[in-house]
């Protein structure tokens, strides 16, 4: 299983726009083949930061999503709202306690 975390800092006046995009796409992302879980998080110390936490069957499943029209259109709209470059990283789950 692959864990994917994406940290995004938004222009404060664009947060509502981001939430509208996320609300339109979250069910489609969650239903994408190979996606097992999706969460939206907020940084408690920086109200302009949102993070997605998702679980994927494999790196190949994540890459298939990243090559999809769903990702391309969602990301194109989202990246216009950033105040800073997003940070993304993946990790393979070794143990679930």
Index terms:
3 helices, 97 residues, single chain, Alpha-Beta Plaits, four-stranded antiparallel β-sheet
Count all strands and give the number. Answer: 4
- Could you give the order of strands across the largest sheet? 2-3-1-4
Backbone CA Rg:
13 Å
Please identify the top-level CATH class: Alpha Beta
In short:
The protein has 97 residues and is α+β, with helices and mostly antiparallel strands. It is 37% helix and 31% strand.
Structural description of this entry:
The protein has 97 residues and is an alpha+beta fold. Helices cover 37% and strands 31% of the residues. The chain has a single domain (2-89), classed as Alpha-Beta Plaits (2-Layer Sandwich). It has helices at 15-31, 59-66, 69-79; strands at residues 2-9, 35-42, 49-56, 87-92. Strands 2-3-1-4 form a four-stranded antiparallel β-sheet. α1 (15-31) packs antiparallel against α3. The radius of gyration is 13 Å and the shape is globular.
